[in-house]
Sequence to fold (551 residues):
Amino acid sequence: MKEAVIQTEKLTKRFGDFIATNEITFEVYAGEIFGFLGANGAGKTTAMKMLCGLSAPSSGSATIAGFDIYRQTEEIKRNIGYMSQKFSLYEDLTVLENIRFFGGIYGLSDRRLKEKSALLIDTLGMKNEVKKLVGSLPLGWKQKLAFSVAILHDPKIVFLDEPTGGVDPVTRRQFWDLIYAAADSGITIFVTTHYMDEAEYCNRISMMVDGVIKALDTPANLKKQFAAASMDEVFFELARGAVRNE
Amino acid sequence: MVTLNNIVKTYNKGEIKAVNNVSFTVKEGELFGLIGPDGAGKTSIFRILTTLLLPDSGNASVNGWDVMRDYKSIRSHVGYMPGKFSLYQDLSVEENLNFFASVFNTTVRENYDLIKDIYVQIEPFRNRRAGKLSGGMKQKLALCCALIHRPKVLFLDEPTTGVDAVSRKEFWEMLKRLKQQGITILVSTPYMDEASLCERIALIQNGRIMSVDTPSTIIQGFPEALFAVKTNHMSRLLHDLRSNALVKSCYSFGEFHHITFAEDPGIAKDELVRWLQEQGHQQVELRPITPTIEDCFIELMTSHA
Fold:
């Protein structure tokens, strides 16, 4: 039996008359790379905010890393990592200062923080950059650093919101190498992307349209189900019928 | 229609070379794409061509007007849609459009035929404030405002960034229709798959143009035979391929990994399949493929580095 680290049951968020996320039910398994896809305005961000314990659901239930989405939001936050294209690191702090700051926030001991930051800098090959301001680094480096910082505290799950937007094709692939390595070490990856080739790198994918999950399966099975040659075609097939546009 | 000669732009007292000796031309009526990641220098080039930024050296012209000397003529004859939404958030859709029309000494009615296709899609929201529109609607309004004075050249800086695959497709169809009306379009994008929708493209990285040509010519210029490989264990396959001396380059690409060979692929490919099977890979699939623009970009990036 696979262990589910995210489990939702009819999870719903309403804003007045508008149902942003409409009774979504799904599971994400430990160590899995789960792609959370959908058109603009499909309700992905709203769903993600709930899963991270940042926004209370209107109805339904969910457990994240074993914690209840209504009552244990603080525990959820301590056991997840989060990274997005927009919010990453403090641009006017150096690489090392950022690592120490976020390590401190997550309550890592001094010794552990020292070990972790040495390992992180070594893995990323950033020895010569530790004293540079994050703002002066190329975007690709920032994103790789932001990801490594997001998993500094060995979270059970890491949420990645369009982590590779605008990144060059070589760095984009290096970023996925980091994702694979994190998944191999047992961290569950929950990722959104607009790049359909990246959808292929996920173990399973959910496709959200107008607030509901329209399809959920492995990329291979989804292509079979929709008689599509690529994930691009699957996406078109599903999103074409969308009524909402943000 | 648009010409750049050895344009250089630096920031931080020369420390950051944003645009490094860039030259290319966009022909009249052409749909030309500037393809490259964030930080490649795309926006600096747009700002120089729209006379919002002065180059350190080099010269550039738009419709024969020099970007420094004739900036006034350029400003009244080009349309510019910046990457960041730059309309008045607290004016309504209709007010924004009327405002930009009157700034350019024209009226919405005069050029309505040009924007009609796009405007009808946002017309139901014409009284809504621009700041309250969805991303897709903002994009359409910005395009209408950039077109309202019937510009000779349209500059679109990353109009599809952060937009989903379906809306992106719609947007490119709008561009094709504008091109048919004779407007020259220079558009930038970080999405390599959009390159094939342009007539000619420039691939740009770290402020340098790596290649300028039609997408098909760039693809034909790919210097090696490219193969796609797939087995039942993709992440292990990547490590295995990279450790094998027969393989020159290897990177993931959707459901396949793309590789080139260090030796004659005719012989090496059978040898590699055998070796992969020995390593315990099952359902080994290896076949020659035509490169995409993204493959070309990766090749250029690694050979330039």
In short: Chain B has two domains: 2-219, 222-304.
